[in-house]
Amino acid sequence: MGERKQKQISKKKFLALPENKYCCYCGEVATTVDHFPPRNIFHNRKYPEGYIYPCCFSCNSSKKNDEQSIGFILSLMDWNMEEKEDDFLIRYKAIKNNNPKLLEEFQQLSKIQSKKILRHRLGSQNTVIKLGMLDWTVFTCGPEVTRLLNELCVWFAQTGYFKHNLEIFSGEVISYKIPSEYVNEQNFWNIIEKMVGIPIIVETGHNISNQFFYRYFSTKGGFFSIFQFGAPQYLFLICALSERHTPTYSDLPSGWSRSGPIGPKIRFDN
Ligand SMILES: [Zn+2]
């Protein structure tokens, strides 16, 4: 049997399961299978097994372009980007065609400003030299990058909630981006160690946690997770809070984003 035919059969089987009847994003009837995290963000398309979700045609097709842009942003944010330059150039060309406004908002900083920021992020000039980053240029980005990264956080929350809480998420997602150099702080690991789920992420038998990592903690009506891709300059922290738990406060600590209401408007159970 051809690979294509086999894929169609396994997709059919997956959607025939009662828990996969509805789209995990909007609650409409699911007719497609969505890979999340999206396959395109993985280097050499070594994407993890088992991270598939029931999805309606409309949600699946409306995600495509943004997934491509998110793949580009994540590869830009990878500290090991230089090793993956070919991959980066392919992404860059695609974005130039499909989402040029994303490229327009990147602003190159001067050499002096770039040096200052790298020194600050990496702790010292010595580290900058040791890592061979002396000639690196720093770019600032704008609202389109923020929108796309918030979208990534919401999708991560929706799929994680669906996978681990076994229901479609309906509520609000709050998210935060943590600069990765903070991860060495003991406080951070104290929090991480309290998160019970330690998934081992595999692709055809190989552990690919060096490309994708997450830990989570789930409760009834809540899903909390920290995740990262590649060797990132940032990690993401998300809290998915169902309507039962949506915070009533109007202000979040600075740096946190609020999604507004997420999930199915109406849900029919027959
Ligand atoms: Zn949908």
From TrEMBL:
> Which keywords belong to this entry?
Plasmid
Name used for this protein in its record: HNH endonuclease
